[in-house]
Specification:
Helix content is 71%, strand content 2%. By secondary structure, it is an all-alpha fold. The protein has a single domain, classed as ABC transporter involved in vitamin B12 uptake, BtuC, CATH 1.10.3470. Strand 1 (370-373) and strand 2 form a beta hairpin. Helix 3 runs antiparallel to helix 10, helix 3 (61-86) crosses helix 13 and helix 5 packs antiparallel against helix 6 (150-170). The longest helix has 40 residues, at 2-41. It is globular.
């Protein structure tokens, strides 16, 4: 009986390892295989293409710097997604919260351009976080007190934020010194006192990298080492039980989206004051400013198992895919649409693998999911995102 039990335990441990650690890398590898087939169909050499991708993302100090900078907003947005998802709410409003964070920080610097750098830089980051937090709190309040579907509200708030940005950058905040046929929707060059400090001279690596890592560490501490984090996760697992235990469920839901929005708003401030132009500029769409970081950050969080610390690594990998994709496009002469398709394939495979992970977790007797709120009533739940092993300890 003892020998049989040991064998069962070893099989159980092996299957747990496969489900916990190898499923997501396997999904990414499968996506790359399909991408290789697409390259062959276009007459390109997939080995040459992927070699160029790796070199462009990780093959030199300059490439690593570009990847790290691209990963910064993905980390910050992903950390916010981790907080919101743990509380059983979906934040699809990262794009709008990025925009509002960028506008809030830009407005602060335009109003107080002469403050010294040691004072202005922290205020800029704080203003960005506040701008995103307000935008997140609106959706959180609507969800908590009026039961408005947070998916719809956050997406609609994205559109509102874009229109506010377009109005401000084409009107009150526009750089009127540009001489041309029409004004570019951008601000003037913002105060140098607000520029994020460069960490390594001669490179573009700025302090936003440190900010993103610190935010991820603090979010991890918040979620798993504080009473507030326990309350957020408890509400995410069961609102009824949390309410019965005396927890303020509605305030917790609002707070979750507020904190999530704050992280995205902080990323918006980093995008403005860590950029090469040091100004806020758009092409009339959210993507023109955010580079789709609000949506890519969701993928980074999912790939990191909704753990803020693992989100750092997953955002770096995904940032490398975005940076290296440009190098691959040049090397094998494929359309830009293929690079977008490769990113989409990775998203589809990573999300699809969650069904298998949930099923195996149930079979292994592990906690199957962190429930994710649906558009139904207060108690509505549906299968959600698996909890990474050890995260709940």
């Amino acid at each position: 009986m003892t020998i049989g039990r040991r064998r069962f335990t070893r099989r159980h441990d092996r299957r747990r390892l496969l489900v916990s650690w190898l499923a997501l890398p396997a999904a990414a590898f499968a996506a790359l295989l399909v991408g290789a087939g697409m390259l062959v169909a276009l007459g390109a050499d997939p080995i040459t293409g992927y070699r160029a991708l790796l070199d462009g993302a990780f093959g030199s100090p300059g490439a690593l710097t570009d990847t790290a900078i691209k990963a910064v907003p993905l980390v910050l947005v992903g950390v916010g997604i981790c907080i919101a998802f743990r509380a059983n709410v979906l934040n699809i409003g990262g794009e709008g919260q990025l925009v509002m964070g960028g506008l809030a920080s830009t407005g602060l610097v335009l109003a107080l351009p002469d403050l010294p750098g040691p004072l202005l830089v922290p205020l800029v980051l704080l203003a960005g976080a506040v701008g995103g937090a307000i935008w997140g709190a609106i959706a959180g309040s609507l969800k908590a007190y009026l039961n408005v579907n947070e998916i719809l509200s956050t997406i609609m708030l994205n559109i509102v934020a874009v229109q506010i940005m377009n109005y401000l950058l084409a009107g009150p905040l526009v750089d009127k010194e540009f001489s041309g046929f029409s004004l570019i929707p951008q601000t003037r060059r913002l105060s140098p006192n607000a520029d994020l400090p460069v960490l390594v001279q001669g490179t573009k690596l700025h302090a936003g990298v440190v900010v993103a890592v610190l935010a991820a560490v603090l979010a991890y501490v918040l979620l798993w080492r504080t009473g507030l984090g326990f309350r957020l996760r408890a509400v995410g697992l069961s609102r009824d039980a949390s309410s019965y235990a005396g927890m303020p469920v509605r305030r917790t839901i609002t707070l979750a989206l507020t904190l999530s929005g704050a992280m995205a708003g902080l990323a918006g401030a980093v995008l403005v004051f860590g950029s090469a132009s040091h100004r806020m500029v758009t092409d009339g769409t959210a993507t023109g400013f955010t580079g789709s970081a609000g949506f890519n950050g969701i993928v980074a969080a999912l790939f990191g198992g909704l753990n803020p610390l693992w989100t750092i690594a997953s955002a770096f990998v995904f940032g490398g895919l975005l940076v290296g994709g440009n190098a691959m496009q040049i090397a094998v002469q494929v359309p830009t649409a293929l690079i977008v398709a490769l990113n989409g394939l990775l998203v589809v495979f990573v999300v699809s693998i969650e069904h298998l992970r949930r099923r195996y977790r149930v079979q292994l007797g592990s906690p199957a999911t962190v429930p994710i709120a649906s558009g139904g009533g207060e108690d509505a739940e549906r299968p959600g995102i698996p909890v990474r092993e050890g995260a709940e300890e």
